[in-house]
Design a protein that fits this description.
alpha/beta; 8-stranded mixed beta sheet; 9 helices
Length: 289
């Protein structure tokens, strides 16, 4: 009998990670309310993320004494309180990477990737070869790497943060590979769950427009289109994409002022008003598979 496997995929986008966190928090409430599970974290079989999405995805998997350390709302509170330290990067580049690295070290300590008990794909990029570098369970190179170091490697924005050296690799922000990690997640999840039903909930960090809609954003949308095709062709794949519009907030990924954080939360609330029923329905769909 086929089993159902839930994949969570979260885009990069700096402080705009608040948008998927608001949606994940709502899904977590529905999962508990409908008795699908104790929490969203407990239902995740595979988590993928790029940049800020990797930080969120890893946080959802983190356990201590057999309990999840961070529910979605806990991560959201961290983004609200620590966002200015993590994401408010000055245009001159004089923001020091120690702030990000120190918070990652304090949060994830000496945990190694081999300690995570669910499958994952955290997206980085090797600047030496200009090739993708994916922190994936089946890659023996990464088992002894600390979770904090891997997340720093996924978030090292060129020009703002120093690359993370790992052997012959010089790793930088995964947005250089793919801001939307959904296709990477699908391919890797299908490799480890070849005969199961894959359910993917993919979360964007806001639909960018105008001058912010560049080649990176076009690839985000192209990846979404590829996943729609995968959904049509793979009978055991169910795909849902959640991408809020940015209405009031600044589209910049590094505007982590309290005022913009509030505007991001307001935009997420606007999206939830329109799509709350869809979130309920995907939880119900998952429950009834």
């Amino acid at each position: 009998m086929k089993k159902k496997k839930l994949i969570i995929s979260i885009d990069g986008g700096g402080i705009r990670g608040i948008l998927p966190l608001m949606l994940l928090s709502q899904l977590n409430r529905f999962i508990a309310r409908d008795r699908v599970g104790k929490c969203l974290n407990d239902k995740i079989d595979f988590a993928a993320g790029t940049s800020t999405g990797a930080i969120i995805a890893a946080s959802l998997l983190l356990k201590q004494d057999n309990k999840y350390v961070f529910l979605p709302e806990n991560i959201l509170n961290l983004y609200i309180s620590k966002g200015p330290q993590l994401f408010d990067i000055h245009p001159t580049g004089d923001r020091k990477p120690q702030a990000l690295n120190a918070i990652l070290e304090a949060t994830f300590g000496q945990i190694q990737l081999k300690h995570l008990d669910r499958y994952f794909s955290f997206v980085s990029h090797d600047a030496n070869t200009n090739e993708p570098f994916i922190f994936f369970n089946r890659d023996e190179r990464i088992r002894e790497v600390s979770l904090a170091k891997s997340l720093a490697a996924c978030s090292a924005i060129p020009g703002y943060f120093d690359p993370v050296e790992m052997g012959k690799y010089k790793l930088v922000d995964g947005i250089e590979t793919d801001k939307n990690p959904s296709l990477i997640a699908y391919n890797n999840a299908r490799a480890v769950f070849p005969n199961d039903v894959l359910v993917m909930w993919s979360f964007g960090t806001g639909q960018l427009t105008g001058e912010y809609y560049d080649d990176v954003e076009k690839r985000v949308d192209d990846t979404h289109k590829e996943l729609v095709e995968c959904d049509k062709q793979d009978r055991d794949f169910i795909y849902h994409r959640f991408q809020p519009d940015i209405i009031q907030a600044d589209q910049a990924m590094d505007n982590a002022t309290p005022e913009n954080i509030q505007r991001l939360m307001d935009d997420a609330e606007s999206y939830l008003k329109d799509f709350n029923d869809k979130l309920k329905s995907v939880v119900s769909e998952y429950k009834n598979l």
